Write the structure tokens for this entry.
Amino acid sequence: MSEHEFEPVAGLPERLPEGERMLWQGTPDFRALARHAFHIRKVAVYFAILLVWRGASEIADGQSWAVAATAVLGLLPIVTLGLGLIALLAWLTARATIFTITDQRVVLRFGVALPMAMNVPFKVIDSAELRLHPDGTGDLPLALAEGQRIGWLVNWPYVRGGRRSQPMLRAVRDARGVAALLGEALARHSGGNSTVEPAIRDSGAAPSRSTTPRVAAPA
């Protein structure tokens, strides 16, 4: 039995109220989650530096190149295991996650060992931002209205830290399209008073006036 088989609707803790419509559901891309949430590339660089340092230390101690190579190769299983565990954790996290956008709210269901659901009604969302990565995936942080708070630790990795933590749809596939859909839903909910700026900030690029998107909703 799956830990989520109790759900009346996949990704939702209960059936939607009458009149509320589901607009979109999706799951994170586990590769993007591994890169941007679990920082697997940074860990790989750290391990690479460690391997170079180990080999260089052997050479500096007067050992032959063969001995240095053997010392480096002896660490490879540990490096492979470490990176594999990070990739596995990212895969399990993505597999246990479903993002849902309705015409009234955003719902994030996640949790590998302890399933959780974060319900974010449109009425408490001040704005939404899109951070687009080069592979087309992206993150959508949701800035909450004043007085609304969420815990960082219990909601990681679907939260952006800072002075006030923000719920975040992370490693979303087709992030540009999902951001447009969310912006339209927020605009309809607020009676057409919201604005959606179409420009996108690519990951790693310096933000500028033409590359910072915001999906704004009135308080």
In short: Residues 39 and 196 are 30 Å apart (CA to CA).
